Amino acid sequence: MTSLLILLRRCTINIKNNGGIFTGKGLSWIHLDHRKVSDKFLGVQKLDQEGHVHPGLGCWKSFLRSFFGGGHDGSKQIMTLEDIAKGIREREFKRIVVMAGAGISTPSGIPDFRSPGSGLYDNLQKYNLPYAEAIFEINYFHHNPQPFFALAKELYPGNYRPNLTHYFIRLLHDKGQLLRMYTQNIDGLERMAGIPAEKLVEAHGTFATATCTVCLREYQGEELRSDIMEGTVPHCSQCRGVIKPDIVFFGEELPQNFFFYLTDFPMADLLIVMGTSLEVEPFASLSGAVRDSVSRLLINRDLVGPFAWGPSRHSDVVELGDVVSGVRNLADALGWMPELETLMADEGQKASKTREE
Ligand SMILES: [Zn+2]
């Protein structure tokens, strides 16, 4: 297994814990892959109550794990998918938190743009990126925004349709049982499926809004659409600065509402993790942030994160395989498939009507 180096860039963590204070301002994304760590990174810093830095906290992940409680009690899984379904159906679970990643979007045809060599990056060859990840680095964006906007053109809301996984979460919301959905995806398919913005933490940002990089004037994503579709870099009507969609780049702060997790996860009565490799921090560690007694359902191709590290919590349930099939199995066990199919058909009709107009 790759050694895990978890470091924060230009940031301090700030969460109150037993008299010590960790600041949460300026958290940015960290890959759990040592190849991506460079000398630009600073270590994680721990502050005492006076705000003095304590060196050597070392590992954000182990910090979060110790802060929120680990989760491996060595006992065997005793719950099943049917038990989870029963809990949802009988409304025993009313504050469900969903965590999702790219695996729920690939069934909609969204290319896996984060993996070098997976198609989309290859299309960006002509821009001579120094390395693939530069496309999401803010300093590179200021130097050359073209490659990012080429990607934006591909991913801009409207090119793809939500699939059964998104509508399943929409249905959880319609039934009043969704506390929040935390998504790593920037394709906007959650909003398109009708999950309201206030129920979403788009941890890596969104194309729905945008901000001028110079005067910080705010724009709606729709205002940028024609420029982006024409392959033009959008400029601010006020100051001519480059307008950047509110996607979170490496080295940028997380969206403010990411910190909802501080209340959402302790309140959650069920956690569903789907279609994510849980490889980007601090998103990955959230899966350990629910109370020990709370069931966690993983619907994914592979075992990931705390589900892979060791024996799971006795209330963990794992549904391995294709994500859409896994969600379909859950919907079947709930008896929700007819409702889900009606919802998808209605929304599909609405969308084609909008396209015709
Ligand atoms: Zn401006």
Automatic annotation (TrEMBL):
GO molecular function: histone deacetylase activity, NAD-dependent; metal ion binding; NAD+ binding
UniProt: Zn(2+) binding residues: C212, C215, C236, C239
One GO cellular component term: nucleus
Residue ranges annotated for the Deacetylase sirtuin-type domain, each copy included: 74-343
InterPro entries: DHS-like_NAD/FAD-binding_dom (IPR029035), NAD-dep_sirtuin_deacylases (IPR050134), Sirtuin (IPR003000), Sirtuin_cat_small_dom_sf (IPR026591), Ssirtuin_cat_dom (IPR026590)
Taxonomy, superkingdom: Eukaryota
Residues annotated as catalytic: H204 (proton acceptor)
Keyword Calcium: no
Keywords: Metal-binding, NAD, Transferase, Zinc
Protein name per UniProt: Deacetylase sirtuin-type domain-containing protein
Organism: Tachysurus vachellii
